[in-house]
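Notes to self after the Tuesday call (sharing in case useful).
The group wants a holo model before anyone commits to mutagenesis around the pocket. I volunteered. Ligand is flavin-adenine dinucleotide. Logging inputs and output together so the record is complete.
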Amino acid sequence: MTERPLSVVGHFVTRVDGYDKAYGRTKYTADVSLPETLHVQMLTSPYAHAKINHIDTSRIWDVQGVRAVVTGNDFPIRVGPLVADRMPLAVDKVRYYGEPVALVIANKPHQAKAACNKIKVSYEQLPVINSPQEAMQNESVLIHEQLNDYKLQVEGICAVPNTNIANHTKIRKGDMEKGWKNSDKIVEAEFSFSPSDHAALETRAVRAEILPDGRVMIYTSSQGPFYVKKLLSQFLKIDEGKISVQTSMLGGAFGGKGCVQLEFLAYLASKAVGGKMVRLVNSREQDMVTSPVHIGLHAKVKLGADSAGKLQAASYEFLFDGGAYSDMGAGISKAGAVDCTGPYKIDNVHCDSYCMYTNHPYATSFRGFGHPEQAFAMERTMDMLAKELAMDPLELRMINAIKPGDTTPTQVHLNASNLGDLPSCLRKLKTLTDYKETKSKITKEGKIRTIGISAFWKTSSTPPNATAGVILTFNTDGSINLNCGAVELGQGSKTVLAQILAERLQMDMKKINVTFEVSTEYDPHQWKTVASSTTYLAGRAVLAAADDIIRQLKQIGSVALRCSPDDLNVGQRLIYLKDSPEYNMKIKDVVVAYKYPNGNSVGGLVIGKGSHVVRHLTPLDPHTGFGKPGPQWTVGAQAVETEYDPKTHAYRIIKAATVLDAGKVINPALAIGQMRGGMYLGLSWASRESFSFDEQAIVCNPSFRSYDVMRIQDHPDYLVDFVETPLVDGPYGARGIGEYGVIGMAGALANSLSQASSCNINQLPIIPETIWKLTKGDKQ
Amino acid sequence: MISFDFLYFRPKSVHEALQIYQDLSHEGLQAVFYNGGTEIISRARAGEVQPDAVIDMKGIADCQGYRDEAEWITIGAAVTLSNITDEINCFPLMQRIAKEIATRNARNKISIAGNVLSSLNYREALLPFLLTDSVAVVAGPAGIKEENTAALFANGSRLEPGKLLVQFKTEKERAGANYFFKKKTKQSAVNYPIATLCAMKREGKITAGFSGICTFPFKDAKIDRILNDHALTISARAEEAIAHLPEKMVNDFHASAGYRHFVLEQLLIEMLEHFEEVS
Ligand SMILES: Cc1cc2nc3c(=O)[nH]c(=O)nc-3n(C[C@H](O)[C@H](O)[C@H](O)COP(=O)(O)OP(=O)(O)OC[C@H]3O[C@@H](n4cnc5c(N)ncnc54)[C@H](O)[C@@H]3O)c2cc1C
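Result:
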């Protein structure tokens, strides 16, 4: 293609779902209520670890409208994405507070709930594992006694029988002994935080129905409709073609809707009532603890640098708190290991990353997938090292920034395309935040203003065969319908994909119709809408489909315009001769077969198809971690400015900034929005979100009255800027950007407040009491 | 969603409300008085309470509205916190406290009586009535009685079953007194208090009210004596006051007892300094 300025890509385009959302017209899964639908309620466990001696359901029939009850023994099959370790309904024992134990199906929701309360379960409490350290140390309490018999679903997950280890990933790079020897300064620290919630506005919801011919229809608020189909097919032993999964718009997901949980339950419930349509919608409390959560972590980090500040060695121990079942936690522990060093050149790296079983609610993906967690530990240690070296934290990051020619912890060779440009991000961050090397400023009121910074990177932990596909069809007026399996969860993917298509076809955005609903029946397969991979994967598929269309249009055009296809261009809804555009024909006259003046037709329907699959990914070597975990790295730098009151330890977040190497910003407003949303999520988590557990591992705060999230009045000013180092094989050079705003926030916030309070804040959430405890410790 | 059935009544008078309550009791049915419902509904959803009947107080004229008479202000028990923040300007401490409870949406529902009789520890709206020695008008089988607020709610007590709160009467001059108020939460301002301190100064004497630090809101004569003991330094008064709390400090997942101590000590010092400055 000849170079021409981009007219749609790189420009602000109103998001295609914007108006419906602003007017409240968008329908989410639970908004749809069909007559004769039956309602499912879950009975969940009041204990975190207990034997189930007996379940007595006899009294439920006293409640009017009850249709059926399902308990674990009705489907005693272990399911799970990575390790099949979880029965959809507990059998023999419960392993976390809130675990589903039984389902009641009734005509009305309140009848099902009333009946649930009549089920008598006799439990016998077991000792609990209340932290990942305990899980490692206390081998007398096993959460999964039969771990040895569990089926591993993917290569590269290493569960250790007779322990509470769901996965162990090892990274061994370089020569540690040499690394420590070359280090003049060594710092060591421990970090920890509890699991927390995704807190999406829309709680998880599903409807299911089994048609008389055996087809299973699932309507679910999921980030992975095709994944739901795959897992249901595998574990229920139903042909994939007989399962249809449909997803409408999601009201936020943040990774929490990539798990397959309620779908199994809804299927079992429908089956229990002869296949009738059933509806299962999480209450807020259930969404918080019964459905999977954001992972917790206990980490040890040790860094060594020479006197000039060059990193020489790094060692890590990550104990992720995966909760009672491994779900994606096993993958998160791997992802954290793969990028353990953050975006720095370190030749000698040692990392043991574990996903531990505990008696906490189980974890699934959370925006950033192991990286906000890893980055908190690493970025805090970097600041501690800077202090030790008496060096400016930004400077320390600058001199260690990873560059083309360096290798990652798993020894992938990096180049400008697959890495991006961290030094430029750091430089821009400095200007954006007015960062001076000077330390904190003291305000008139005696408050301390400090900027804390962080740098981050992330590759997407896609499976080696992650794919996306696109099908383009035409309407008779020449406008296009774009169908693909990407789910819209608020991130704006569908707008971005339409922009890529409009750009490639040189077509007005208004002539592109995007379907928001995804159906596994008629949309082409897509792995999942996760891992910041949609712009890249589906974007490439859009380009391939657009090229497929252009090829077909030129083919037909060459017949009608009596020339070679190579003589033609497509654009502005025309097919025209490159050298004499006045010889042209309208696309609309071609797309449903071209008709000669005499009435003969040629060509047939023009239908575009395209797909993309990630290339060259390999599983990691179990002993050294050697391997290629993801297609590309996105890098960036962040800052948080706080105003801290040394008297009360309260603080305000004044500013939060992100500079990201986006490769190519396809839609500036959406990209800025993604960064802001990401920063918000990261700050809310770091400053207040956390589950509190009592000694029995019961969650004390499973509701928004007591589970704190950041409110509108707590928002800082958000500053966003981009660097654009093209990803050579990305659509128009674009990289994945969706998750990145979150990653460095906890580190930057903690760095800012650590400096302000002169103590090492190495745990989350950072509430005033956290700092009070630490400063008290310093004094004593 | 509430899964059980219950009866709903909306009486027009206090007398009718009491009658309904009695009739239901005779039938062996448990009834609760109902105002904003933010607590009854939440607890019923969670399966913590399961009343057979609710008696809605919002239709009773005596429980509604507020009257501003020569020397007294009368605030109906069904008045919402939003009504207070919007209208009751002659009771500034009450307005301040109301404004910092929950969110506007919730305050549109939350009533004075519901807050004062809440099953939670906080019951912050009680504090201004305690500090102003207000009169609580309570109705029960034996008729309508005026009671001393502090005595009625001493040590966290609530009303006996079958009694209902009709209104509070506050001397206008006391309601307008100079006050101090500060609420400290775990993090977001909308959270429950880990320590709320309010105080008023009249005729040179400070009286202080507390919420969030013990399992109930209180004022305490002994503590007030300490706070007014000018023989002691401000920080000594603060320390001494804390040593005389009616109960051990709460230690829960919102805040440890140690941190509550730290916060309360600062609040007390700030309050004492505030009144030192203004006088
Ligand atoms: C988001 C949120 C934040 C909150 N934060 C705070 C806070 O910071 N500080 C604080 O103090 N509280 C706080 N609360 C608690 C709130 O004050 C209580 O929920 C209060 O009970 C609500 O009043 P209501 O009118 O809705 O009560 P209802 O649910 O109607 O009743 C509550 C109780 O009072 C009884 N009752 C009501 N009226 C009468 C009457 N006339 N006579 C006798 N008994 C009666 C009821 O039987 C019931 O036991 C918060 C609540 C919410 C929703």
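Two things stood out.
Residues A 705; B 32-40, 57, 77, 101-103, 106, 109-111, 113-115, 117-118, 120, 122-124, 159, 164-165, 192-193 surround flavin-adenine dinucleotide (CB under 6 Å).
Residues 117 and 158 of chain B are 6 Å apart (CA to CA).
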